[in-house]
Amino acid sequence: MTQKRAILALKVTLWLGALAPGAWLVSGISRGWLGANPIEKLTHVTGMTALVLLLLTLTVTPVRRLTGWNPVIRLRRPLGLFAFFYVVVHFSIWFVFDMVFNVTWMLEDIAERKYITVGMAAFLTLIPLAITSTRGWIRRLGRKWAKLHQGVYIAAVLGVVHFYWLVKADTRLPLLLGACLMILLVSRAPRFSGRKKSADDREVEEVV
Amino acid sequence: MIIRRPADIASSQITPEHVYLNRRRFLKTAAAGAAGLAASPAALSALRGPDDQEVPARFRTMRSEIDEELNSYQDVTQFNNFYEFGTGKDDPYKNSGDFNPRPWTVSIGGEVAKPGDYHLEDLLASESMEDRVYRLRCVEAWSMVIPWYGFPLANLIRRVEPTGNANFVEFRTIVRPEEMPYQRTSVLNWPYVEGLRMDEAMHPLAFLATGVYGMDLPNQNGAPLRLVVPWKYGFKGVKSIVSIRFVERMPLNTWQRQNSMEYGFYANVNPEVDHPRWSQARERRLPGLFKNHPTLMFNGYADQVGQLYAGMDLNRWK
């Protein structure tokens, strides 16, 4: 019972925390205090939020292993989906306001600007993961589901590289996120995680 | 056509220094009080500078030479690139309250007949100040239309009599890490350095601004003296200038030093030469939302400055 309550509290925190940047932006738009270039603000905040949420998604499993508290795994899917939600908004703002719905301009930008190339690759990598995040898909894909969802590591790496390549001079924040990601990835190496091979299968069941 | 006006700003319209300094102090206090409430609209509106009603009346109808509207005082003074105060666009507005631009001395040296440390007041005393409405095109593909207040750079240059060896002018921003928080980081190489070729510097469009909207430059816009070169990307407009040197060799400007693959010395606005990060063919005319405003060659000043670059390969000399 207390466990259920703890999970519920965590989930409420997660929803409030994940919706907060969006709510801040929406109220900024309606009250007009996003400054002279609201699109830049919207793009930066949604991109940053997506990246942080993606890294938090990758934090769930190490936390579960460290604490041995398995129910925490239930935060993983909502975190991942919120990350994807912000990625979609981030992309849409760019497509609508920067590319002005012009697919030719968009393809040019994807081809010519490497930070956009990797950003787009991260977005495309996340799409199948978001689609197959439902219980039905988890059941249908079975063991293949865990394999497929390892794509999140690729998306996270691409996301951090996207951020690193787009900043002009101050690389401190992208490097910090890169270091966090590195720790999260290293913590998964068999030597550190201290788990046996079948753990993946168990994880799938726990998610459902 | 350049808008040339006499110095029609009445002395009563100029913010007296004590009011100006009080406002700074108020902003500082307000900023401290607002810490933690950063996202609250009330806190933000308390941080606002003079609003549009306080702008001198002559700006109400002023437009650019191709009939563009001016950006508001808020746009111009609250959305800035001035890395000494932070890399976010609102950082300069929020973090420049400690900066004290008075008194101010500009050191002029190198290949000149009259080198020396000049008090800003003395430099300005013999200048007749004027409003200049210019487009500002940032390399990041956004743009504004800004009514600067100041005098042509050529006037100052003639006064200090450069020698025949002066091929370039090099400008430096002040270094005051105690007042400019990001100078305590190594985000860029300090001091900020920019330069112009001598003929560019002597061009009548090259401008030294001491004000915007007829009022003293706020700290975040480069108080008390900054360069404005409207046919070049905004980063050429070095702010809070303390040193002007006349030199033989092309100076290594800060952004070129930072990343020579992406930034060159000339940095002329050119829709045909793309930057690796931003297509330069289009721009977002703030406060507009869509990046669909076509960028003009030399930012629309091609008729005036094109001949400076006759015969130069603009793909190579970025």
Topology, element by element:
The complex is a heterodimer of chains A (208) and B (318).
Chain A: H1 2-31, H2 38-67, H3 76-98, H4 103-112, H5 114-131, H6 135-141, H7 143-149, H8 151-166, H9 172-186, H10 190-193, H11 199-207
Helix pairs in contact in A: 1-2, 1-3, 2-3, 2-8, 2-9, 3-5, 4-5, 5-8, 8-9
Chain B: H1 17-34, H2 41-46, H3 73-78, H4 91-95, E1 105-110, E2 116-119, H5 120-125, E3 130-137, E4 142-152, H6 153-160, E5 168-173, E6 193-197, H7 198-201, E7 207-212, E8 215-216, E9 226-228, E10 241-247, H8 254-258, E11 282-285, E12 293-294, H9 302-305
Parallel strand pairs in B: 1-10, 4-11
Antiparallel strand pairs in B: 1-2, 3-4, 4-7, 5-6, 5-10, 7-8, 7-9, 11-12
SSE arrangement of chain B, N to C:
HHHHEEHEEHEEHEEEEHEEH
CATH class of chain B: Alpha Beta
- Regarding quaternary structure, what we see is heterodimer
Q: Summarize the main sheet of chain B.
A: 7 strands, mixed
Task: Identify the CATH homologous superfamily of chain B.
Answer: Oxidoreductase, molybdopterin-binding domain
Average pLDDT of chain B, rounded to a whole number, is 88
Helix fraction of chain B, binned, reads 10-25%
Global structural class of chain A = mainly alpha
The largest β sheet of chain A comes out as: none
